Amino acid sequence: MMKFVEASVEGTGYALTSNVAMPIIEQIRNQTPRPILGVRGATITENVARAFSLPAMGVVVDSVIPDSGAYRAGISQHDIITSFNGQPVLNFEMLAEEVQRHGVGDTVEIILIRRVRDELITIALQVTLLEYRNTNF
Q1: Quick one: 49 and 84 in the same domain?
Q2: More exposed terminus of the chain, fewer Cβ within 10 Å: N or C?
Q3: Are 35 and 106 in contact (CB under 8 A)?
C-alpha cells in the first residue's frame, strides 16, 4: 500500500493483493540467475559436536542435490563444510550468505571434513556454483 500525505494532495492509496503480486515476484525472481552450492545441511551445535566428536563449527551436509556443483565435486551426505572460499563456515546461514556473494559459474574452494574408516580427514574441493532452478530440494 502506498499513500501520499501532503497538503496539496488528497489521500490516495494503492494496494495489490498477494494473488496478483506473487506471480510477478516469482517472474522477477526467476529472471535473476542465483547461484547455489547444492547442499542441504545443518549447523553443528556444541552439543552435537561433543556427542559425536566433531569439530565445534561447520555445517553437516544432510543431502546433496543431484547434478549440482556440490554433487559434481564429490560432496557427500555427512561431510562437514568448515570453509568456503577461504572464509570459515560457522553456521548454515553464513554458508548461504557466502554462496550468494558469488555468481553463477564461479569456482570456489570448499574445505570439508569427512569420516573415513572412523578417522576424520580434511579435503579441499573445487566447486562450480550452478544456477538455482526451482526444485523441491
Answers
A1: yes
A2: N
A3: yes
